[in-house]
Amino acid sequence: MGEALAALATGLWHWDTATGLVTVDAEAARLLGLPAEQVSLTEAQARARLHPVDWNEITGVIQLAVAEGTLAEVRIRIMDEQGRIVRIVRSRSKPSFDRARKAYRLIGTLQEVTEPTPGTPAGRSAVTGDWRRSREAFLLDAGRALAEARSTQEVLRVTAYLSMPGFSPGGLAVFGVEGDRLTIIGHHGQQQGDDSPFSDMALDTDYPAAEVVRTGRAVYLSSPEQYKARYPLTWPLAQRFGRRSWAFLPLTVAGRTMGAWMAAFTYPVAFTPDERSVLATVARMLAQALARRAWPRASGP
């Protein structure tokens, strides 16, 4: 069986979240850019070989497949030590959830596939697999969790730990408005005190969150170069955090913009229409959850 799969350039892999180990056969190891021999990897070691966007996608697709009793199928970009994409593989697996161990377990195949042509819709898309169904499941869970949050701090904590389908922010901040000043209600992914330059900023400042509050329109910045070109005065404040992409979205209640939500990413994000749709929906749910708490001030989660 193994020889037949190898002849088809297809490898086998096994993942058990209880042990935290990913075991691959020789062909799967080769596809991951490792020596062609069976090996057990930690999740961190396996994750280092995969594009971070695709790793996040895998977890969402697995959970959805278990819930629906279907196969989990995703396309995965394999990275080398320098962060370059070396190939794209397709994974097909049958995952299961062990309630006693509270762990997912799956056995699946890896097979190399043709890379999408640059510039085509497939080539531009940052998300793989059955993403739209994963998105719908995520939004249902997020809406339920935000609705159940009992305090502003809990709302912020829920938002900070949302695992978005296909992409996950490395830093979050929620801005409010007091008079003509922009204030920070809470943040996540930064050290204590890192918010000082942003905690009391005039609304006419050349800063994305301030612009969002003034205009009620979202701002998407896909690269540091774009941020620097568009907001040269406040770029030095953001530069030190080492982010690669940013989304600033209005928090609107009853037609009035009450604040802004920032999601910052440690890797480039194209902000496709699907990705913008997810972020906009989360922003609406976040605004509604905060409005139920009368927008009190709170420390970061």
Automatic annotation (TrEMBL):
Residues 1-69 form the PAS domain. Signal peptide: none annotated. InterPro entries: GAF, GAF-like_dom_sf, PAS, PAS-like_dom_sf, PAS_fold_3. This is PAS domain-containing protein. The lineage of its organism: Bacteria, Bacillati, Actinomycetota, Actinomycetes, Kitasatosporales. It holds the Pfam family PAS_3. It comes from Streptomyces afghaniensis 772. It comes from the Bacteria.
